[in-house]
Amino acid sequence: MLSFHRFVGWRIRTLIRQISILGESRREVITNCYHTQRSRRYCQKSSGQSWLKMSFQYPQVYRDESVVDDYHGNKIHDPYSWLEDPDSEKTQAFVNAQNQLTTPFLEGCEIRDVFKERMTELYDYPKYSCPFKRGNRYFHFYNTGLQNQSVMYVQEDLDAEPSVFLDPNTFSEDGTVALRGYAFSEDGEMLAYGISVSGSDWVEIRFLQVEGAKPLEDRLERVKFTCMAWTHDGKGLFYNSYPEQEGKSDGTETSTNLHQKLYYHVLGTPQSTDVLCAEFPDQPKWMSGAEVSDDGRYVLLSIREGCDPVNRLWYCDLQSVPQGIKGLLPWVKLIDNFDAEYEYVTNEGTVFTFKTNLEAPRYRLINIDFSQPSTGSWRELLPQHDKDVIVFATCTYSSFLFVCFLHDVKNVLKMFRLASGEEVRTFPLDVGSLMGFTGRKKDSEIFYYFTSFLSPAIIYHCDLTKEPLQPHVFREVTVKGFDPSDYQTTQVFYPSKDGTQVPMFIVHKKGLQLDGSHPAFLYGYGGFNISITPSYSVSRLIFVRHLGGVLAVANIRGGGEYGETWHKGGMLANKQNCFTDFQCAAEYLIKEGYSSPRKLTINGGSNGGLLVGACVNQRPELFGCAVAQVGVMDMLKFHKFTIGHAWTTDFGCSDIKEQFDWLIKYVQHSVSNSLSQLW
User: Fold this and answer.
1) DSSP state string for 441-467
2) Global model pTM greater than 0.85
3) Interval 54-65: pLDDT, tens
């Protein structure tokens, strides 16, 4: 089960990879195709005109000139504020008009079918997760190739034939209901899992008895951004829920989510009788997540206010409630400030090991004895590395720690002794990313999942009971018709405007002539302490392979590639550094002959969409095309909708004068002027 910290990080990373790094949408491929001579022969209107000569008559859009907002004495016109209501007739008419303009153009692009056919062919390869053990059974996810969702399989041992345990493709006929999180009970006999409709963050939690995969009647609703943590007796689990609100709650609403609460659900009882365990009436923006300690004795409560890597940490000794969980728990406020982040790793009795960035922007491991909780009694187990960032740490086989580091945006896996912090060995990895790791404290084996720009998946297995320790390839995925040896991945370090060296990965065919003639696709994110590590993408490899393209991924400031210092270098008052770093990446690609401004596409999603929007406004002459996916664009109002208030820790908030002054600097540029230069 993911801890709350890991769940939040996993959810953000999942969204990023869905909309950005994996980039499997046809929209992305079509965008790429515009920048090669080959594709220009095909992308035509039905009249036969080249797309370059096409002119669009954009629909007239209503402007409400009466809307003027006052920000600390600054009058800001907002004539399109009516679009903030997604259900209004005006908004629906606007969307329909845009679709009527766009759809015929896309349908008239003949090469679209060519790319769809090739993408389908190359994406049709088997996809596996790491196996993981729960109780006496092994589970893993498997996708035959083109299934909408991966299926969970079960097997009695690793040599047994797997059988289908939970198939999300059967949740609905149209494929719009998805699996969103799951948690097995400690003995592996019960499963809680979330389902989401049409991509909504709202989740309904359901339950299965593992033996025979028998559904239970329990249903938990009004669930969002939740933990799922079973007590070790298997009687029930902790989860998060929001109060009822006016209007709809299907994921299309824009109302703010406040007053999240922690509940305990007992199996076999209605949700209406669930026990309220924690709430924060005076702090409506706080969000929490519970995690049960490895020994089952303690419940750890992590509390966050935004997306900054800081949290409060409370705990409850379940032995202090011998009558069971009946009401608000007697929480001990171990850390009652937002000065640093504390992520539970494991515990030996009252001695708890945490991963923390307290006085360590690249993270370290510390021990805190709950019987002697004063900070003067805390002990460092694994110090901060001089350069590398600790990504995660987990305890396996009772007494060993497996720690994943990030070294110049490449993952390294090491093994340490829990008792002393002594390093035991390093597990060799190529240049790439660890996308999965399984192995709990009670387990005697580990599995880990490696991927890179040119390799979809290699899953390794290591039996920790056998000496010498020797990981072996448990499963390697190859793609028919794709030979990784035909391509090369290079990492460069280029200077930003202030001299900061910024890493960037560049992928292309071997033997590429650096003459500026190639189309290039430059991706960036730069926010929320998130590191963008190497990842396999079919659509982008099609771009590289069939269009002679260059793929570039810039690890700009604002991310977590070098820890919290790198993050802070691109947030709040320093946000402009993200945009400047990205623009300097484009300049590097042009200067070194990889591409030219006319053939350079930039892309980013969410926070990366903001990045693309800002760069197009500031340097329109530098790019030939820009794809901003689900961007955070209204920097003066984003905090007023859905979960936007949590993003103010990275962006700032226009309600605060000092932060408004930061935001307005990159909000006020003329979009229309930039677009005229771009086209």
Assistant:
1) TT-SEEEEEEE-SS-SEEEEEEETTSS
2) yes
3) 577 889 999 999
